[in-house]
Amino acid sequence: MKYAIITGASKGLGEAIAKRLIHEQIAVVSVSRTENEEIKQLAAENGLFYQHYVCNLSLEKEVQEVFMEIAHCIFEKDPKEILLFNNAGVIEPIQTVGNLDQTPIIRNIQVNLIAPIITTNLFFNKAQVTNTTVQVINVTSGAGVRSIEGWSVYCSSKAGINMFTQTAALEQAELKTNNKIIAFSPGVMDTNMQTTIRSSSKEAFKDLERFKEFKEKNTLLQADTVANALVDLLLSGNVESGKVYNIKDLIE
């Protein structure tokens, strides 16, 4: 049996990934502030294991405690493979350096970078004494390789997750494990994050009008399309550990 743990599974890309995985007969553990009843029902209809955990990913102690509990629960079942999707992310603060508030800076780095490091570390550690293969998918962004005015914190946290992914992959290869870790850039999707971006100010975010145009011209990618491309890649068996994948490379 395969198990998938998905942070931010209640909406957007996380929800779309969860639904596709259930259709593939993969058990789902959802981690988010609110539970998605549709996912719960879909798992029940397919006779699959499903569990929801509430976790504030900006609190490292809570991340450690909740994911220790998840790890204990899943590894006890001796699964063939565990897929860990570090999908949850925050874009705020959208503001120029010199005008940033401290609290959202810390929250951004905690959710986007520290939480995925903690969870990956925990699952790779547990995998050392089991027959289970762990595959980690860190959701990143084009902002991790490109500077965007007003997004200094977000760009930095995503650049950090890219480098963490590449380094962890090198280590797993050196240890000759079967574990893999990749980063995945989903492109500009029609999700709540885009709503947040469009509600920022022109002073804080220079490219505001361009992002409003994405919505007006209907050029935003749908979460289902992106989730399907990602899951197709993961199920293909051709995943290159350490690679930063871009949605543009996976869809026509």
Can you tell me about this structure?
The chain has about 250 residues and is α/β, with parallel strands linked by helices. The chain has helices spanning about 10-25, 35-45, 60-75, 100-125, 150-175, 190-200, 210-215, 225-235, 245-250; strands at about 1-5, 25-30, 50-55, 80-85, 135-140, 180-185, 245. It has a 7-stranded parallel beta sheet, sandwiched between helices. Helix 5 links the parallel strand 5 (about 135-140) and strand 6 (about 180-185). The chain is globular. The chain starts with a strand and ends with a helix.
Keywords:
7-stranded parallel beta sheet, alpha/beta, 9 helices, 252 residues, globular, 7 strands
Task: Please write out the topology.
Blueprint lengths: L1 E6 L4 H12 L3 E5 L5 H9 L4 E4 L6 H16 L5 E6 L15 H26 L5 E7 L12 H23 L5 E6 L6 H7 L9 H9 L6 H14 L7 E3 H4 L2
Parallel strand pairs: 1-2, 1-4, 2-3, 4-5, 5-6, 6-7
Helix pairs in contact: 1-8, 3-4, 4-5
Oligomer: single chain
Identify low-pLDDT runs. none
> What amount of the residues lies in strands?
5-15%
The value of Rg in angstroms is: 18 Å
Q: Separation of termini?
A: 31 Å
